[in-house]
C-alpha cells in the first residue's frame, strides 16, 4: 500500500504543478483577489485529493477540478453580490497595446457582475469554453449559460465606466 500511496501522491503533485496557474487565474476572476483565489484553489485541490481516484479517471481531470473551484466559489458567495477591485490577472501580462487604465476599468466592471453572470462570462470568454462545456462546468443548462453570459455582456457593454475605452478588445 505504501508504494501505491506514494505513486498516487506523486501523480497528484504532477497534476497540481501543471494545473495550478490555470486554476488560479480562473479562481482569481471569480473571487476577485489573489488570496481568495488561492483559498478557492486550495479548497478545490483538497477535495480533489480526497477523491483523486475519481478525478484521475475522469475524461479531463482539469475540468473536474475547475468544476470544484466553481462550486466552492458558488458556495462561498451564494446569494451575495460581491464587488471587488481587480487590477491585473495573475501570471498573465496585459496584451501589447492595452492601456493599463482601460484594463483596470474593464476588470472592475467584470468584478461588479453578479457571481453567476461573472462565471458564465469568465468560462465562455476567458477560458474559451463552448456553451456545452460551460454548462457542464457551472452545473446548469446551456440555456442558462446563454442567458447569464448575454446578461453579463449586456451589463459590461452598458457600464458607463467602459464607454469610450479603445483597447478593451485585446484585454482577454
Automatic annotation (TrEMBL):
SUPFAM superfamilies noted in UniProt: Sigma2 domain of RNA polymerase sigma factors, Sigma3 and sigma4 domains of RNA polymerase sigma factors
Coiled-coil residue spans: none
Molecular function GO labels: DNA binding; sigma factor activity
Keywords, ordered alphabetically: DNA-binding, Sigma factor, Transcription, Transcription regulation
Transferase in keyword set: no
The RNA polymerase sigma factor 70 region 4 type domain, residue ranges: 105-156
PANTHER family: ECF RNA POLYMERASE SIGMA FACTOR SIGM (PTHR43133:SF50), RNA POLYMERASE ECF-TYPE SIGMA FACTO (PTHR43133)
Organism encoding this protein: Kitasatospora xanthocidica
Domain of life: Bacteria
Official protein name in the record: SigE family RNA polymerase sigma factor
Amino acid at each position: 500500500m505504501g508504494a501505491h500511496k506514494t505513486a498516487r501522491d506523486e501523480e497528484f503533485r504532477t497534476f497540481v504543478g501543471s494545473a495550478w496557474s490555470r486554476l488560479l487565474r480562473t479562481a482569481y476572476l471569480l473571487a476577485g483577489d489573489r488570496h481568495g483565489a488561492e483559498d478557492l484553489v486550495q479548497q478545490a485541490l483538497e477535495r480533489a485529493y480526497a477523491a483523486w481516484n475519481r478525478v484521475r479517471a475522469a475524461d479531463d481531470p482539469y475540468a473536474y477540478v475547475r468544476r470544484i473551484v466553481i462550486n466552492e466559489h458558488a458556495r462561498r458567495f451564494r446569494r451575495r453580490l460581491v464587488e471587488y477591485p481587480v487590477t491585473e490577472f495573475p501570471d498573465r501580462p496585459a496584451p501589447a497595446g492595452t492601456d493599463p487604465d482601460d484594463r483596470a476599468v474593464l476588470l472592475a466592471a467584470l468584478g461588479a457582475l453578479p457571481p453567476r453572470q461573472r462565471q458564465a462570462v469568465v468560462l465562455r470568454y476567458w477560458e474559451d469554453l463552448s456553451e456545452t462545456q460551460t454548462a457542464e462546468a457551472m452545473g446548469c443548462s446551456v440555456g442558462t449559460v446563454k442567458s447569464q453570459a448575454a446578461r453579463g455582456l449586456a451589463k459590461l457593454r452598458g457600464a458607463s465606466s467602459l464607454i469610450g475605452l479603445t483597447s478593451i478588445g485585446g484585454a482577454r
